[in-house]
Amino acid sequence: MKIVKPLNNNVVLAVNNSNEEVVLMGKGVAYQKKVGDSIDAEDAEKVFTLTNELVTKQLQELLTSLPPEYVMLADRVISHAKKVLNKELSESLYISLADHIFSSVQRFIGGNVTKNVMLWDIQRFYASEYQIGLLTLEWINESFKVQLPEDEAGLIALHIVDAELNTEESIANEVTQLIQEISNFVRYHFKMDFSPDSVSYFRFVTHLKFFAKRFFTMDKQPAETDPDLFSLVTAKYPDAFECVKKIEEFLHRKYQFTITEDDQLYLTIHIEKLIKEARG
């Protein structure tokens, strides 16, 4: 690899044999190195090869202001999250998560503790991401000799949710609120609670997560719906469909948003399965 720019003694920007920009990080990896020098990937503790030019630039800027161990920890968390969730995550998570970990540690050292008012909803709606958050909390506390509160696990989970949604702006808070609002509508309409560990509840929340993503990213192009299937489902599950119509009225009143027939169809199916499982 050829060095493009040493950022500090521990971080260097280079190009590989495929002419891709990479960021190499490691203790003393750039010591006495200059532009044009060769550098071996084996000399670095971590090599970042990112496809998003903006994220690559942001990572360079972050690495000049953060101790490298925070980025290394974020990378460890992201690698673990990809395995657990079995999905790709937005590259921007390297930036947001490393910055969040650093800020959280600094706040704790300064005597400021963040209260997460959405913790209970995060635990319900994003169980896998929350477990990753708890493990991350253990790693942070062990690495930096702090004792961050459990609230931080929820905030870390929201960063992971944002990376799953892969949007240009952070919308995890808004998505969580919308999931909460729709879930409460279903709960109050049928006067019953639902087990957060059930398969139907998991599928329901997953559907709502991506429904909310379309909602907040203005991706409101209606999908084609089979009119016969729509009539069949709504007639077969009238209670679930009545609940969906109430949800539609609420969303239209609060957000001036109309649910497409396609979303009405699948939301009706998910609600029917949810209440059927709850009733046994």
Radius of gyration: 23 Å
Instruction: Please tell me the total number of domains.
Output: 3
Class by helix and strand content? Answer: alpha+beta
- In round numbers, the mean pLDDT is 89
Low-confidence runs (pLDDT<50, min 5 residues)?
none
The profile of the biggest β sheet is: 4 strands, antiparallel
What is the CATH architecture descriptor of the largest domain?
Answer: Orthogonal Bundle
Total number of helices: 11
> Class of the largest domain in CATH?
Mainly Alpha
Order of adjacent strands in the largest pleated sheet: 1-2-3-4
Q: Tell me how many strands there are.
A: 4
Protein name: PRD domain-containing protein
Domain PRD: 65-169, 170-280
Organism: Candidatus Enterococcus murrayae
Keywords: Repeat
Written overview of the protein:
The structure is a single chain. With 280 residues, the chain is α+β, with helices and mostly antiparallel strands. It contains 11 helices and 4 strands; from the N terminus they run ββββααααααααααα. A 4-stranded antiparallel beta sheet has the order 1-2-3-4, covered by helices on one side. The chain is elongated, with a radius of gyration of 23 Å.
